[in-house]
Amino acid sequence: MQVTEKLNDGLKRELQISIPAGDLDSRLNDRLTDLKDQVRIRGFRPGKVPIAHLKRVYGKSVMAEILEKAVTETSQQAISDRDERPAYQPEIALSEDKDEIEKVLDGAADLEYTMTFEIIPAFDMPDFSKIEIEKEVADVEDATVDESLERIAEQNRPFEPRAEGEKSESGDRLTIDYVGKIDGEPFEGGADQDAQIQLGSGTFIPGFEEQLTGVTAGSELVVKVTFPEEYQAAHLAGKDAEFDVTVKAIAAPGEVKLDDEFATQLGMESLDKVKEAIREQIAKDFEGASRQKVKRQLLDALDEACTFELPEKLVETEFESIWQQVTQDLERAGKTFADEDTTEEAAKDDYRKIAERRVRLGLLLADIGDKNEIKVTDEEMNRALVDRVRQFPGQEQMVWEYYQKNPGALAELRAPVFEEKVVDFILELAKVTEKKVSREELFHDPDHDHDHGHDHDHVDEKPKKKAKAKKADAE
């Protein structure tokens, strides 16, 4: 094998690799010798078929297999012989000249191919002990527990049918059929049967519930409303609509007593146990919000501390993934970039910066994990896989088998687990101080004050951006 460096420019590399025809022929003869005892050819006793005859019969097909294996082995060897790490799987390009390919298959020419890739850049590791993180923490107050208990009680409130002819009041639960129309024509998604609506809950379009107050079961009426200007379906936003409504049943809310009997209905031993469970869940939610803010601070600090050249292909691949999701979300919402107070060009610039940040932090965290021998254990992977499987009730076996058979999917599952372990490692070395805050402060996102959004996914909490179309979470 002969390796010639054709390009060494920044992070870009191009190698030309040549494998002599004699080497390929030797591999071919070795493979045909192994096949000699396995093939059955009329006129020859088993194991007595001449190599020359096997070469005439099977030479090209066997050589094709040898070439594929030779390219794999030599490309890997060429990489291992260099003190560099490719940023992604190198691209292999063989000759497209059919005559040349035929000569190689016939053993009459050397095999030559090019391998192009970008390398992972060298960068200085930041001093983690100089990173200062302020961790916001909030106490779980009794009032917060009581609020959650009240919500649970409301969700489990019994309803009793109102007497015939009795009119609906705020708080009642109505069962209705409805058909929505704009300019006299029904619109998609504007109809339902046996829909339940609780008057005063504010779950329907503004003005809809109010017009169902004071009606009786069996009533048929037309409810007139105007969709909000900021309604999520752009084709309905700001439009006047009429709903033909049939009230099928009216039920009045019953009383809920917050006592031990109520707790047993929830499957708990006592009301104190219910409150204890609520407190633990709220504390877990608080810790999750605190962790998210801490992680964002840490990633911001790392991003600011490390500046280095990025592999163009990694950035472009990441950008294309983000951009595809953003445009799909806008299309589903029936909106344009103008609706988001930006332009396509400006949005692309914002999202490209996001892609660059993701790649930079991804490379940095991977290097930190590698140099400090941070590993994801089998137990941690199994736990992550079980958590993912639970997200698909009724399809558990199918999802489990999918991940077991797809190493790429498992790698995607491993990535956030690995990232969290690296983050924990850095936080152990960083200077972390706690700051007591209220619940409102803990969950407050200052970016929203500036009409910006944040998308959260592994490797990066994205920086500010103008386009606000939500990006789906892979986790």
Word description of this protein:
By secondary structure, the chain is of the alpha+beta class. Helix content is about 45%, strand content about 20%. The strands form four sheets. Strands 6, 7, 8, 9 and 10 form a five-stranded antiparallel β-sheet that branches. β7 and β8 form a beta hairpin. The radius of gyration is 33 Å and the shape is elongated. It starts with a strand and ends in a 14-residue tail after the last strand.
Task: Produce the secondary structure layout.
Blueprint: E1 2-9, E2 12-19, H1 21-36, H2 51-80, E3 91-94, H3 98-105, E4 111-118, E5 132-137, H4 142-155, E6 159-161, E7 173-182, E8 185-198, E9 220-226, E10 240-253, H5 260-265, H6 271-305, H7 312-333, H8 344-371, H9 378-389, H10 396-405, H11 407-429, E11 431-436, H12 439-442, E12 456-457, E13 460-461
Parallel strand pairs: 5-11
Antiparallel strand pairs: 1-2, 2-4, 3-4, 6-10, 7-8, 7-10, 9-10, 12-13
Helix pairs in contact: 1-2, 4-6, 7-8, 8-11, 9-10, 9-11, 10-11
List keywords for this structure.
475 residues, alpha+beta, 5-stranded antiparallel beta sheet, elongated
